[in-house]
Specification:
Largest sheet: 4 strands, antiparallel
Order of helices and strands: HEEHEEEEHE
Shape: globular
Number of domains: 2
Structural class: alpha+beta
Helix content: 10-25%
C-alpha cells in the first residue's frame, strides 16, 4: 500500500470512528421506556403520564430525563447546559409513540391544554399535525422545531 493510500485509509478510519459509523455502531440512542408509576418530570417534578404529551432526553451516560410536557423539556435543557444529550424524543400526541425531537412536527395552541400549559403538541407526521392545527380556532399552525416559541418560566410566547 502506497503512502497516499495509507493516509486516505487512516483518515477514513478516523472519520468513521468519529461519526459512529465504524464497527456497526448504532447511529441513534433508542427511546427509553416510560414507567408512569415512578418517572417524574425533571423540570417540574410532576409525574409523567403516557398521555401523548411526554418527552425524554437521554444523556451520553445513559441517564434518562423525563418530562410531562414538551415545554418542560425545552425549559430544562435551556437552564442546564452541562448535560451532554445523546437523544431527545417527544411522544406523538395521537399514537403515543416516541418520535425523535428533530423529526417531529409541532403545533402550538392554547385551545387544547397540555400538562404544564406550554401548549406544544407533537406529531410524527406533518399530515397529522396539519389536521390538528386545522381543527383549532386559535390560528394554530404546523411548526418546525426551530419555530417554536417557548418561555422557560412556563407557558408559551404567542
Amino acid at each position: 500500500m502506497n503512502s497516499k493510500r495509507a493516509d486516505r485509509a487512516f483518515l477514513l478510519t478516523i472519520f468513521l470512528a468519529a461519526t459512529g459509523l465504524a464497527a456497526g455502531q448504532a447511529m441513534a440512542t433508542p427511546p427509553a421506556t416510560l414507567d408512569p408509576a415512578i418517572d417524574a418530570c425533571a423540570q417540574c417534578q410532576m409525574s409523567v403520564k403516557d398521555s401523548g404529551f411526554a418527552a425524554q432526553a437521554i444523556a451520553d451516560d445513559g441517564r434518562v430525563y423525563w418530562f410531562d410536557d414538551v415545554g418542560c423539556l425545552f425549559a430544562y435543557l435551556a437552564g442546564d447546559t452541562s448535560i451532554k444529550i445523546a437523544a431527545r424524543y417527544v411522544q406523538d400526541e395521537q399514537t403515543r409513540k416516541w418520535q425523535a425531537l428533530e423529526k417531529a412536527f409541532f403545533v402550538q395552541s392554547k385551545e387544547v391544554a397540555t400538562p404544564m400549559g406550554y401548549g406544544i403538541h407533537a406529531f410524527a407526521s406533518k399530515a397529522a399535525a396539519a389536521g390538528f392545527a386545522k381543527s383549532r380556532r386559535d390560528g394554530a399552525k404546523v411548526l418546525a422545531l426551530g419555530d417554536l416559541a417557548v418561555s422557560p418560566a412556563g407557558g408559551m410566547k404567542m
